[in-house]
Design brief:
4 helices, 81 residues, three-stranded antiparallel sheet, Multidrug-efflux Transporter Regulator, Chain: A, Domain 2, alpha+beta, 3 strands
């Protein structure tokens, strides 16, 4: 458990992280990130970007701070208990 906490802390120090790292740090699945992206909650350039390959087919990188802030605000507005 301590290794995961250290990994999450390490990831937060980097601006852009891989999808696997984002899932671990945010505690959500790849599918949840994908759905939030497809629904327009997470936007290109601000929350995620493609890297590594050309023509828009590279893997995604995620901006943890922006994603977390947006998800927190979005869930407060849309997930009423």
């Amino acid at each position: 458990m301590e290794g995961q906490d250290a990994q999450a802390t390490s990831n937060r120090q980097r601006v852009w992280v891989t999808t696997a790292e984002a899932c671990t740090a945010l505690g959500m699945s790849r599918e949840t990130l994908r759905q939030l992206r497809l629904r327009g909650v997470l936007q290109p350039g601000k929350h995620y970007r493609r890297w590594g390959c050309t023509q828009g087919r590279g893997p995604l990188q995620w901006h943890l701070e922006n994603v977390e802030a947006t998800i927190t605000g979005w869930s407060r507005r849309h997930l009423r208990f």
